[in-house]
């Protein structure tokens, strides 16, 4: 099944950029267009940073939260995910590291995660891509 170059917005913590770059590569090889702030040269110091984030979310087919302790501490990541949900766009969650249960936002607690922790990266990303391409199943995020 093709993706028709669906744009995917990635919500993440800047401290996790090396992992994000790895995820971007997998998604782009799978045929997705990925929007992520640091790849478009956007930084929080930019005058229109907030507006650029909102426009990118509005123009995206779906969003991904890369869940780490860093991203769970980010109010911006939380706001990005809320906007995605308010716009009724699919929100996928990549479980990138073991996080304290009490730190996981209630708004994402019921979303089945794509687990890429430890040696599960390739399998987890494969399952995520299948789900993003429209497949359904008990094993898919």
What attributes characterize this protein structure?
single chain; 141 residues; alpha/beta; five-stranded parallel sheet; 15% strand
The backbone outline, from C-alpha atoms, is globular
Which structural class matches the secondary elements?
alpha/beta
- Cα distance spanning the termini: 17 Å
**Overall pLDDT score:** 91
Oligomer: single chain
Q: Helical residue percent?
A: 25-40%
Number of helices: 5
Main β-sheet description: 5 strands, parallel
Describe this structure in words.
There is one protein chain. With about 140 residues, the chain is of the alpha/beta class. The protein has a 5-stranded parallel sheet, with helices on both faces. The protein contains 5 helices and 5 strands, in the order βαβαβααββα. It is globular, with a radius of gyration of 14 Å. It is about 35% helix and about 15% strand.
Would you kindly provide a brief summary of this structure?
The chain is α/β, with parallel strands linked by helices.
Write the layout of secondary structure elements.
Layout: E1 7-11, H1 17-29, E2 33-35, H2 49-59, E3 62-67, H3 69-72, H4 75-86, E4 91-95, E5 114-115, H5 121-132
Parallel strand pairs: 1-2, 1-3, 3-4, 4-5
């Amino acid at each position: 099944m093709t993706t028709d170059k669906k744009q995917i917005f990635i919500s993440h913590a800047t401290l996790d950029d090396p992992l994000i770059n790895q995820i971007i590569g997998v998604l782009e090889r799978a045929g997705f267009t990925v929007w992520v702030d640091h790849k478009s040269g956007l930084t929080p110091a930019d005058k229109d940073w907030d507006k650029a984030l909102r426009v990118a979310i509005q123009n995206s087919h779906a969003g991904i939260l890369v869940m780490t302790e860093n991203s769970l501490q980010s109010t911006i990541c939380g706001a990005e995910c809320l906007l995605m949900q308010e716009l009724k766009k699919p929100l996928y969650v990549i479980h990138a590291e073991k996080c304290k249960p009490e730190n996981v936002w209630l708004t994402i607690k019921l979303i089945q995660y794509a687990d890429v922790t430890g040696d599960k990266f390739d399998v987890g990303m494969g399952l995520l891509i299948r789900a993003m391409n429209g497949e359904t199943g008990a094993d898919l995020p």
